[in-house]
Specification:
heterodimer; A: about 170 residues; alpha/beta; Beta Polymerase, domain 2; two-stranded parallel sheet; 4 helices; B: about 400 residues; mainly alpha; Cytochrome-c3 Hydrogenase, chain B; 17 helices
């Protein structure tokens, strides 16, 4: 369960995990889209340029990473870039997870929707839109999902007050 | 502030090719067959379902936000409340995620007990599913039978954790305490009698022409749709996708157990019923193996700064008292990083995504729960069928609104 090996940074991962199917597929498609990479605690994280995420997802899908397990975001306020969107993708064939992520600038960020690659991204993206205020371009129905439609603010943002009256 | 860009359900344009007689009706959130507070807006043509819009969020309590304000060990009781029918799986998944962040090794006995408890919890979840599903279809008797067996599981949990449903028994670094002396005997007694009980349910339902008629051929889901729509667990396996995290990406020592993963290629409600019944029998086998091979040793990891000391030690040893005080008042720091841990819970794949910034409180906890994704497949399964079939489909995908809304 404990994985001693940690590879930090793009170069180290490219050297250490040259045979990884997802990594190979991404490099064969467009090496520039891979902004950063990390292998930590047995999990591979590939940071993708935000404008290329949908194509990157289609690439790993073609490489056998067929199941979108989870899609969520992290707010790194007040750091910049502020938002991170994490995509956890499972391969039924390779029996392995990978994580793609994009980093988004600003307080009104937008990124391409993955609903065209995995229809299951629909609810997850609505949840992230609702709770973080990240817009997903090309989403078929980007409405709030947890909070009421008329709600103001996005509760999982770090600058959202946790006590007192709204 | 970002504005919503979608259309509210009730003002949505009618489906393509809609005729004048299409009607929009509301089902839930207080409808008994929706298993909680699920609201479905149905567009129907007579009795035929044209479109389904699930409306969720009635149980949203912001658990993920609450987690960010708690110490790592204080999140464990919150996880019970997410999927309240399968509490030990939630505890297990969260504990595994944090242990992965910490790089903590768990003693073998704790791992085996965790497997045993996760399977008992799965039985608990499947028994409730069977009872309520059969009740929705009109077979009321089965409900009384399955809840009789479930009561015994809850009594075992109560003896173990002092709580029937909100157990919080699996903690970071092991288990809360040694199980009581009669625990293994009670579990043995329970699983010895359970196969007969499952035969009894099967006798009541499998040959029942009404039950068959309501389930067979209803709610078909193809394997490609199951993957595309994020369906996991028994509904996915009933559609012919042979994948189970317990077997394929084992955690907590599952690789040491022998069990079959039932699948079916039929993909209807009946297949889901059959798959879950076999899963229950396989769970019994796993529990039996855990009982037979239960290793000796401690149920807590040797990590005094993370795991609370035993009461006895805390009252008699200065060191232990200091550690206890520190953990309770300040928590423990977790090295920065992000991990995702998935497990196979009763309803499907549960996953915890925990991000640490190096402090004693999680920076972000995201809970991936199977029902949330499975609900997206509802429209695919119900389109073109009668409203009454919808009740069968909702029962067969076994959703819990607590885990959908979180």
């Amino acid at each position: 369960m404990v994985h001693a090996m940690t590879l930090n940074g793009r170069t180290a991962v490219l050297e250490g995990l040259a045979d990884h199917p997802a990594l190979k597929a991404i490099l064969a498609w467009n090496p520039e889209a891979l902004a950063d990479a990390k292998f930590d605690r047995g999990e591979l994280t590939l940071t993708i340029q935000p404008e290329r995420i949908a194509a990157a997802a289609a690439t790993v899908l073609a490489a056998g990473y067929n199941f979108l397990e989870d899609l969520t975001a992290v707010d790194w306020f007040p750091l910049s870039p502020r938002f991170q969107v994490s995509y956890h993708i499972l391969s039924h064939l390779n029996k392995e997870h990978i994580r793609l992520r994009v980093l988004l600038e600003g307080s009104d960020p937008a990124v391409d929707s993955l609903t065209s690659v995995w229809p299951s991204a629909n609810y997850y993206e609505r949840e992230v839109f609702d709770l973080f205020g990240i817009r997903f371009e090309g989403h078929p129905n980007l409405r709030r999902i947890m909070m009421p439609d008329e709600w103001e603010g996005h509760p999982l943002r770090k600058d959202y007050p946790v006590e007192g009256y709204r | 502030m970002v504005d919503s860009v979608g259309t509210p359900i009730l003002q949505a344009p009618p489906a393509e090719g809609a005729k004048d007689q299409h009607m929009v009706i509301n089902m839930g959130p207080q409808h008994p067959a929706t298993h909680g507070v699920l609201r479905l807006v149905l567009e129907i043509d007579g009795e035929i379902i044209v479109r389904v819009y699930p409306e969720i969020g009635y149980l949203h309590t912001g658990i993920e936000k609450t987690c960010e304000a708690k110490f790592y060990q204080q999140v464990v009781p919150l996880t019970d409340r997410v999927n309240y029918l399968d509490p030990l799986s939630n505890n297990l998944c969260y504990a595994l995620a944090v242990e992965k962040l910490l790089g903590l090794e768990i003693p073998e006995k704790a791992q085996w007990l965790r497997v045993l408890l996760a399977e008992l919890s799965r039985l608990n979840s499947h028994l409730i599913w069977l009872g309520t599903h059969a009740m929705d279809i009109g077979a009321l008797t089965v409900f009384l039978y399955t809840f009789r067996e479930r009561e015994e599981i809850l009594r075992i949990f109560e003896g173990l954790a002092g709580q029937r449903m909100m157990t919080s028994y699996i903690r970071i670094g092991g288990l809360a305490m040694e199980p009581p002396l009669d625990f293994l005997d009670r579990v043995q007694g329970f699983i010895r009698s359970l196969p007969e009980k499952i035969d009894e349910y099967s006798n009541l339902l499998t040959g029942n022409p009404i039950f068959r008629g309501r389930l067979q051929g209803v709610g078909y889901l193809s394997p490609a749709d199951a993957i595309a729509l994020g369906v996991t667990g028994p509904p996915m396996r009933a559609s012919g996708v042979d994948f189970d995290l317990r077997r394929d990406i084992p955690y907590s020592g599952y690789e040491k157990f022998q069990f079959q993963v039932p699948t079916s290629t039929v993909g209807d409600c009946w297949a889901r019923y059959e798959v879950r019944l076999i899963e229950m029998r396989e769970s019994i086998k796993i529990i039996q193996q855990a009982l037979d091979g239960m290793p000796e040793g401690s149920v807590k990891a040797d990590a005094p700064k993370i795991v609370l000391p035993d009461r006895e030690k805390m009252k008699t040893q200065m060191e232990a008292l200091i550690h206890h005080f520190k953990i309770v008042t300040e928590g423990f720091n977790v090295p920065a990083g992000e991990v995702y841990q998935g497990i196979e819970a009763g309803h499907g794949q549960t996953g915890y995504y925990v991000v640490s910034d190096g402090t004693a409180k999680p920076y972000r906890v995201h809970m991936r729960y199977p029902s949330f994704a499975t609900l997206q497949a509802l429209e695919t399964m119900c389109k073109g069928r009668m409203i009454a079939d919808m009740v069968a489909v909702i029962g067969s995908i076994d959703i819990v609104l607590g885990e959908i809304d979180r």
